[in-house]
Specification:
The structure holds two protein chains of two kinds. By secondary structure, chain A is mainly alpha-helical. Chain A has 14 helices and one strand. In chain A, helix 3 crosses helix 10, helix 7 runs antiparallel to helix 8 and helix 7 packs parallel to helix 12. Classes of the chains: A mainly alpha, B mainly alpha.
């Protein structure tokens, strides 16, 4: 006879994967949009890159946010006497957030998967053990990070754009300047990436580096990557390449096609950061359910199994593949003003911010940070026309997402509680 | 697509502004040709050309409306939106005035004294240059707003100066011509027709200069 625990875990895994697939369809598709939109990568390449890099991000750097969602918002000790309530609550949160994100994807509304799951967990916490059980300090810092992270993305992206403008676009020969400075940009990407990987990011591999050791190692990796890229960029004949990127009037061919190469790198970077931060939105509650079922208590210390992060990463990739390709296709077909230079800056700013936030265990919204980054570029006059109406849409979706997922999680929780107990 | 990140990247209005400038540029040569036909007494060809200019004017009008209607609130541009629209208005006025001048010509049969006719043609040639320069000006400005390169800004400033200078020269021609008409054309009706015509042609250059000034304000630091 099949164990009742196995059934619970099976259903929970399915719901977790449902949430993860929705994250892929909504969030990741959007995050890859700036690369597809500038024609730096094709749709197929985008799917391939995002599935792999997202999975790597989830497995290699995805534990911090998972921990926050598992035990950072509600104090599990308060439910120590009723582990099944904790389990049901996490289940309800997962389902509520999944439904909300699914609905938003159908309606093409910009909602945050991170906001959804945080709202849902807070909702179930409020009814199961009362408002006192919620760690308001942590919730406040999460909400603050939602405000601060787009600004940070904007600052990094805008700063990067100014740098590129001064050093490359405004120079006497932008093409040569681009080839000269590109290795430096590669260096920056690799340093941040390596830092986020090794500076306690690889918890799963039990590598414990001190900050300075990690920093030194990151510098070494960055320098190696920069030298390699320098060699590659000198060998590529950018001028004779067939021009398929969005260059626009007055754009510089060599510069833009070089940045299209760099955008392949930042596309991976964004997908990796997304994996590190957003896969946890599905895996966090799932890990909590597994911990309860396995130990029959609400344990504070549980190692999140690697396979769970992997499954989350795969499900996100699957969601992107199944439902997100249409979104990206639309983006790729439309003539937009996303040039590789702008795309590079936006992705660099966003991915850097996301990695720092996920290192701090803050579940932030990938899409919102990317929007912040693009707005940052627009504010430093990097774009001829920036449509800020989307920002208003996002603010509206903020005020709807939190109450909706809270209430939905409460309803599902109460329903299940009355059905099973 | 609603809610998508790509929605942030709005289609640049400079693309259509340049298209509009190119239509204005087209009308400059048409004006010159039409004036030549008129002076040579080829009324049919003149009417044909006037018709063409009218068509061009209405398609430019449509483009102008299209640009205006697609600058929603909440659009962040590197230039003030009202300055951009004022520039567009002046650029459009150039074409309006070209059309008006041709209509005014058509109200009377061509019977100009030969010397006056030659000077009139010179005046028309004088306003062709500033009209045609507008397209170049728009393109240079677009480059500047895209890349922020100082050398593009210098080009813009130079074009504005050129237009302004040509307008001054056209002004001089205009004044001399009016003086001569009062001296050499005794028939009041004929004189009235010519003087009003010259006024309209002068306004073409005025609007080109206004457009240049607006552009200068847009690239001001």
């Amino acid at each position: 006879m099949i164990n009742i625990d196995t059934i619970i875990l099976g259903i929970a895994t399915l719901v977790g994967m449902y949430m993860a697939a929705n994250i892929g369809a909504n969030d990741l598709a959007n995050a890859m949009g700036t690369s597809v939109g500038s024609r730096a990568i094709t749709l197929k390449q985008a799917v391939l890159i995002s599935v792999i890099a997202n999975l790597l991000g989830a497995v290699l750097a995805g534990t911090h946010v998972t921990e926050t969602l598992r035990k950072g918002i509600i104090d599990p000790n308060l439910l120590a006497g009723a582990p099944e309530k904790f389990m049901l609550g996490m289940f309800a949160a997962l389902l509520a957030a999944g439904i909300w994100v699914h609905l938003a994807t159908i309606l093409a509304q910009p909602v945050s998967t991170s906001h959804s799951i945080v709202g849902a967990v807070v909702g179930f916490g409020a009814v199961s053990v009362g408002l006192g059980a919620i760690k308001w300090g942590k919730v406040t810092s999460i909400v603050l990070s939602w405000l601060v992270s787009p600004v940070c993305g904007g600052l990094v992206a805008g700063g990067m754009y100014i740098l590129i403008k001064r050093k490359i676009l405004q120079s006497r020969s932008p093409g040569e300047a681009a080839i000269r400075y590109a290795p430096f940009l590669v260096f920056l990407v690799f340093v941040v990436l390596t830092l986020s990987l090794i500076y306690k990011g690889l918890k799963n591999l039990h590598l414990d580096f001190s900050f300075w050791n990690a920093f030194a190692l990151a510098l070494v990796v960055g320098v190696i990557a920069a030298i390699t890229s320098r060699y590659i960029f000198r060998c590529v004949d950018f001028e004779s390449r067939e021009c398929k990127f969005v260059i626009g009037e007055g754009g510089h061919l060599v510069t833009e096609s070089l940045f299209a190469y760099l955008q392949i790198l930042t596309a991976c970077y964004v997908a990796f950061a997304h994996g590190a931060n957003d896969v946890a939105n599905a895996v966090g509650p799932l890990a909590a359910i597994f911990a309860v079922v396995k130990t029959k208590t609400v344990a504070a210390q549980v190692q999140v199994p690697l396979w769970m992060l992997a499954i989350g990463g795969i499900a996100v990739g699957g969601g992107l593949f199944a439902f997100g390709t249409r979104v990206m296709e639309t983006i790729g077909k439309n003539i937009t003003e996303i040039t590789p230079v702008r795309g590079f800056c936006a992705e660099f700013g966003a991915a850097t911010t996301i990695l720092v936030c996920s290192r701090m265990g803050l579940p932030i919204s990938t899409t919102h940070v990317l929007v912040g980054s693009v707005v940052g570029i627009g504010l430093v006059r990097g774009m001829e026309a920036l449509d800020l109406r989307l920002v208003k849409n996002i603010l509206i979706s903020w005020f709807i997402t939190l109450p909706f997922t809270m209430i939905l999680a409460i309803i599902i929780y109460e329903l299940m509680l009355h059905t099973f107990y | 697509m609603r809610g998508s990140l790509v929605q942030l990247f709005y289609k640049t209005p400079f693309e259509n502004l340049l298209k509009h400038a190119e239509k204005v540029k087209l009308c400059a040569q048409m004006l010159l040709e039409a004036a030549e036909y008129y002076i040579n007494g080829e009324v049919e060809k003149f009417d044909e050309m006037t018709e063409k200019v009218a068509l061009l004017e209405s398609s430019a009008d449509q483009l102008k409306r299209n640009i205006r209607n697609h600058l929603p609130r909440g659009l962040l541009m590197p230039v003030e939106k009202f300055q951009f629209l004022e520039y567009l208005r002046e650029q459009d006025k150039v074409l309006d005035k070209v059309e008006e001048a041709l209509y005014w010509l058509s109200y009377r049969p061509p019977d100009l004294p030969k010397e006056i006719a030659e000077d009139l043609l010179d005046l028309v040639k004088g306003v062709v240059a500033p009209i045609e320069k507008l397209a170049q000006l728009t393109e240079e400005a677009w480059n500047y707003f895209r890349n922020g390169r100082e050398r593009d800004r210098i080009l813009v400033k130079k074009s504005v100066r050129d237009i302004s200078q040509w307008e001054n020269e056209a002004d001089l021609l205009e004044r001399e011509l009016i003086k001569r008409i009062f001296q050499e054309v005794p028939e009041p009706l004929k004189a009235f027709h010519l003087i009003k015509l010259i006024g309209i042609i002068g306004q073409i250059a005025d609007h080109a200069q206004n457009a240049g000034d607006r552009m200068r304000a847009m690239v001001a630091k």
